[in-house]
């Protein structure tokens, strides 16, 4: 198969929430080095709540993403609420009404998500934010999609991980950690790390379903 | 941690619950949103509404400035974390008397995004929104990049002036302009002597070694420009005055409003020790203090330290500052 059906996919978002909740302490720990250490708890709260609300429901992937988006935007706040909230809202918008999600549709979804993040944040690649994960991951999927859905997802995951790791050597130029200047160098960015978890989890959930 | 806590996850809700009980003569909780505190005097038909919001842990800011001729509605966030776009939107709706709403908030990434999204949300309901972003913290960026500076205790003057201007029946554009003028006339600096701990995290998120002080520290412990040996209060006060007044570059003879706020765990008497020296130094520069505010006006959990804010007054700002108001904190 080169696609997954859009219907009956709430579990993909539940699996994603499981990853975030399982990494709550880790995300808070890396955030604590250059931020205020609440990234893990805020993310786990938002993704966990969304998972509870979609659990056992027969939902399309876009409907499940909208539940997640709504929780992030109306209950979590901070910086991550609007950034990931808009990312999932726009991702959902791009696949809404599609019966099947293939490489083309997934690519449109990734690009819409990236646009959503960029519509509210103004970080560029190199600023030490989740953009350092998202931009190369979307580009890698795009470049590999002609080889098929599965190889493109693998390329996306590899690029996301590389992007995440690239933030170690960066100096933060935006957000709270930017006030640290040089002192922000040498540690992972928490947003880039959680963004990598999101993309990796989406990728592996879909790979399991098209395999 | 020696703290009065139940479940740290409930801290913000319990703070707001106690606050609206204690100050029920002035404020109430929005029936639509448990993270929005509304003035009992709002909305007023035909009058511009004033909204602010920000993370919790800065009490009495932000909720404490809700009241008559001040802020009409406040969006409440998690500790040190921006309120949701929805809470800002609900606060805007609660403050709207049909003449538009000005959102007066601090320059932080999360607040910028959530206010922007909230304005988009209420536009659908036909509410006109203007914003002013506070950036009074001198040490957070050089003067050439003032738009990058954080908003700190100068926000209180921005709310006071904006609220008073709205009370005169001014238009949305006029209220926005007055609040902008107020924050443009403000310069602030913070000095930290000890860190603070987010209760859900359980350990301080930065360190200040005993015997040291951090000059230019931010309201969430953002690093300052210098870490050096703690000096006598008069030297610290002189340093604070020098930092704000060099950035201000005011001509002699200006009238000022001065705010010295504790950051949470500094005894109030020490704030007066600082103020004693601060006013003397300002007088030596040929300045007159029209009004002074000394106390815990804008805190950062249990951080040890203080901030100084100086607002340069003109006739309009002076009249608006002097206007009567009623809120839990001012």
Report Rg of chain B: 19 Å
* Element-by-element helix/strand order of chain A: EHHHHHEHHHH
CATH superfamily of the largest domain in chain B: Dihydroxyacetone kinase, domain 1
Percent strand of chain B equals 15-25%
How confident is the prediction overall: mean pLDDT of chain B? 96
Silhouette of chain A? globular
Q: How many E-type strands of chain A?
A: 2
Average pLDDT for all residues of chain A = 94
Structural class call of chain B reads: alpha/beta
Helix % of chain A is 55-70%
CATH architecture of the largest domain in chain B: 3-Layer(aba) Sandwich
Structural class of chain A: mainly alpha
Measured by residues with Cβ under 8 Å of the partner chain's Cβ, the largest interface is: A-B, 30 and 30 residues
* CATH T-level topology of chain A: Serine Threonine Protein Phosphatase 5, Tetratricopeptide repeat
In the predicted model, the low-confidence regions of chain A spanning at least 5 consecutive residues are none
Poorly predicted ranges of chain B = none
Q: How would you characterize this protein structure?
A:
The complex is a heterodimer of chains A (211) and B (330). A two-stranded antiparallel sheet of chain A has the order 1-2. Chain A has 9 helices and 2 strands; from the N terminus they run E-H-H-H-H-H-E-H-H-H-H. In chain A, 68% of the residues lie in helices and 3% in strands. By secondary structure, chain A is an all-alpha fold. Chain A has one domain (3-210): DhaL domain (Serine Threonine Protein Phosphatase 5, Tetratricopeptide repeat, Alpha Horseshoe), CATH 1.25.40.340. Chain A has helices spanning 10-22, 24-34, 39-54, 61-76, 80-95, 103-120, 131-144, 149-166, 190-210; strands at 3-5, 100-102. Chain B is an alpha/beta fold and 330 residues long. Chain B has 2 domains: 9-184, Dihydroxyacetone kinase, domain 1 (Rossmann fold, 3-Layer(aba) Sandwich); 186-313, Hypothetical Protein Tm841, Chain: A,domain 3. Chain B has helices at 11-22, 85-95, 109-123, 154-167, 172-184, 233-248, 268-284, 315-322, and strands at residues 27-30, 33-39, 49-56, 73-79, 101-106, 129-134, 186-194, 212-215, 226-229, 255-262, 288-295, 304-312. A 6-stranded mixed β-sheet of chain B has the order 1-2-4-3-5-6, with helices on both faces. In chain B, helix 4 runs antiparallel to helix 5 (172-184). The radius of gyration of chain B is 19 Å and the shape is globular. The interface between A and B is medium-sized, with 30 and 30 residues.
